[in-house]
Amino acid sequence: MNWPLKKKTNGDGTSNGHIIEMLGITKVYNTGKIKVEALKGIELVVDKGEFVAVVGPSGSGKSTLLNLIGCLDTPTGGSYMIGGEAVAGLDRDALADVRNRRVGFVFQNFNLLPQLTALENVELPMLFGGVGRRERRRRAVEHLERVRLGDRVEHRPTELSGGQMQRVAIARALAMEPDIVLADEPTGNLDTGSGSDVMSLLSELWGQGRTLVVVTHDQTLAKRAGRIVEIRDGLVVTDRRAVA
Question: What ranges do the domains of the chain cover?
Fold first, then answer.
C-alpha cells in the first residue's frame, strides 16, 4: 500500500515534507511496431530524509523508475513533482537544470572519467553548475575527505580499487549538495568487503538527513533502508517499512 499524498506545502517547496511525488506514472517505449509498457501507473511518494530501497526482478521497471526520478527521462503519462516542482512536462534543457540542482547519481559501473583524477571527477558537476574554480576545489576535497579518500585526491580511477571508485562516485553525487541521491545497484560490482563499506557510507548519508533512493538486488543493503518498495511488471506491489 502506498502512503497518502497530502497537499499542504512547506516553506522549503516540498508538499508536507514530500520530496518525490509520483501519481499514475506510465512509461511506454516504442520499438518499431511494438510498444513496451515499462511502467503501468506507478504511485510513489517519498518524504524528505527517507532512505528507500527499490527491489524487484530484472525487467520489472526499477531502472526506468530511477531514470524518471532523476530526470534522465520523461514519463509517458502521470504527474511527477520533485521538491514541489512539476517536472513531467519539462523540455530537455529544463530537465537538465532540475537534475543538476536537485539530484546526485551513483551508478553500478561508477561512470568516472579515466583521464581525470578523483578530485577532477568530483569537480565535474560543479563545473557544469557554474561553481567557481576555488570553490569547486574546496568542496571536492571536502567531499572526498567525507568518503575517507582525502589521501587519494590526485589518483586516477585506474589507481583505485572498485570500492574506492564507488566512493569517488558518491563524493561526486554530493558535489552540488542535491536534495536527492539516487543509486543504481551501487554494490553490484564490488566484493563483499567493499560493498559493506559503501553500504555503511550510504547509511551515514541517510543519518545526516539525505534523501536516498537505491535500486538494488542486495537484500542486505535493502534492509538498511528505512523503507522497501517492490516493483513487478511495472507496478508497485508492496511498500513497507524495512525490518533489519
Answer: 18-241
The predicted model scores a pTM of: 0.88
Does residue 242 sit in helix, strand or coil?
coil
The set of residues, in sequence order, having a beta carbon less than 8 Å from that of 22 and lying 6+ positions away, is: 42, 43, 44, 45, 68, 69, 78, 79, 80
**Cβ-Cβ contacts under 8 Å for 225 (sequence gap 6 or more):** 51, 52, 53, 206, 212, 214, 242
* Helices marked H in 22-77: 62-69
Cell numbers of 29, please? Answer: 517505449
CATH tag for 18-241 (out of 3.40.630.10, 2.60.40.3080, 3.40.50.300, 3.90.550.10)? 3.40.50.300
Q: By C-alpha distance, which of 56, 89, 59 is closest to 74?
A: 89
What residue ranges of the chain have pLDDT lower than 70? Answer: 1-16, 243-244
